[in-house]
Write a structure and sequence with these properties.
The structure is a single chain. It is globular and about 60 Å long. It is of the alpha/beta class. The chain is 31% helix and 27% strand. The chain has 2 domains: 148 residues, Quinone Oxidoreductase, Chain A, domain 1 (Alpha-Beta Complex), CATH 3.90.180.10; 144 residues, Rossmann fold (3-Layer(aba) Sandwich), CATH 3.40.50.720. The structure holds NADP nicotinamide-adenine-dinucleotide phosphate.
């Protein structure tokens, strides 16, 4: 089978398309014939060698795949050919991937494999940072950075559906048009305007109740500035390459909270806290109240182009590889 490996840390050119043996499912596992593999920002950071606790080369990236069950390991009763999506940890950039049988979600006929591959990481993260971690309530104001991105497009829709007033930032007007279509009430082009000034102006200086920050660095510092008294920031990523820094004295005087979130570690330690959102998310998708925005599709062989597009901020929504 064809697969994509990272043989050393480096730029997107280190992604190596190669042949490998089809993996055999072990006890409790299934083998999935991959129709679409999700590409995540974390895959890019891991390939660069910039991801805390990330894998050492040589490895096959790819933490989520959608496709059909091709073989089942000992103890697993799964019909071959059933349409599934799964989180794989890694190994997803391949024609076949292994997954734990109890981590599978069914893919309804009405949903494409590309859409299905865009569901687990970004929608589970968006729901968790908004609700289980962020504590969003109807009528609150939320600011979502990278509002046209993968997590961003999911979060904008979920926040809007929850009755929040949604502020969103992005680097281009095209990205903001997408965010607006998905329910962003206050699209802000942060390249042209200081988002702190826009938020201050549009909230009568009150600020927002919640910020979702997957960017870090300077953006994180500014996120604290736009928080209202009692506001919360959920820090869930560092797309800028820089972590955010916190002055705890300031937090206590302003009654502001900073909350961290990591999907993989939460799933390991408290899966129920994450997975409780799945039935609601599946229902919303089935009812057409949510959409998985698949922004770009690449052939498996073009994984390097997919990574370069993400690094260059050229993508919106979900990026998938199709073997
Ligand atoms: N904690 C978790 O479990 C978890 C789960 C999923 C994702 N994440 C994190 O969440 C963030 C978003 O992930 P995603 O997969 O949905 O990615 P994404 O939003 O589709 O892509 C990242 C976006 O971040 C913005 N950005 C700002 N500074 C950037 C920079 N220096 N380089 C590249 N992009 C930059 C860009 O949007 P603009 O052009 O609009 O600025 C870019 O399109 C990432 O930091 C990711 O690692 C964390």
């Amino acid at each position: 089978m064809r697969t994509v490996q990272v043989t050393e840390f480096g730029d997107s050119g280190v992604l190596d398309v190669t042949d490998a043996e089809k993996p055999d499912p072990g006890p409790g596992e299934v083998r999935i014939e991959v129709e679409a593999a999700g590409v995540n920002f974390a895959d890019v950071m891991q390939r660069q060698g910039n991801y805390v606790g990330g894998p050492e080369p040589t490895y096959v990236p790819g933490m989520e795949v959608a496709g059909t069950v091709d073989a089942a390991g000992e103890g697993v009763e799964r019909e071959e050919g059933s349409r599934v999506v799964a989180m794989t940890g890694r190994g997803g950039y391949a024609e076949y991937a292994l997954a734990d049988a109890d981590s599978l979600f069914e893919v309804p006929e009405a949903m494409s494999f590309a859409e299905a591959a865009g569901f687990p990481v970004q929608f589970l993260t968006a729901h968790a940072v908004l609700h289980e971690w962020g504590g969003l309530e109807a009528g609150e104001r939320v600011l979502i950075h990278a509002a046209a991105g993968g997590v961003g497009t999911a979060a904008v829709q979920l926040a809007s559906a929850a009755g929040a007033e949604v502020f969103g930032t992005a680097s281009t007007d095209e990205k903001l048009e997408l965010a607006e279509r998905l329910g962003c009430d206050h699209p802000i082009n942060y390249v042209e305007e200081d988002f702190r000034e826009v938020v201050a102006e549009e909230t009568d200086e009150e600020g927002v109740d919640l910020v979702l920050d997957g960017v870090g660095g300077e953006t994180f510092a500014r996120s604290l500035d736009v928080l209202s008294h009692f506001g919360r920031v959920v820090a869930y990523g560092a797309a800028s390459g820089e972590p955010g820094e916190v002055d705890t004295t300031r937090l206590l005087f302003e009654n502001k909270s900073v909350i961290g979130f990591h999907l993989g570690n939460s799933l390991q330690r408290n899966p129920q806290r994450i997975l409780q959102s799945v039935p609601e998310l599946q229902q919303m998708l089935a009812d057409g109240d949510l959409e998985v925005v698949v922004g770009q599709r690449f052939d498996l062989e073009d994984a390097a182009d997919a990574h370069a597009a993400i690094e260059n901020r050229e993508t919106v929504g979900k990026v998938v590889l199709e073997p």
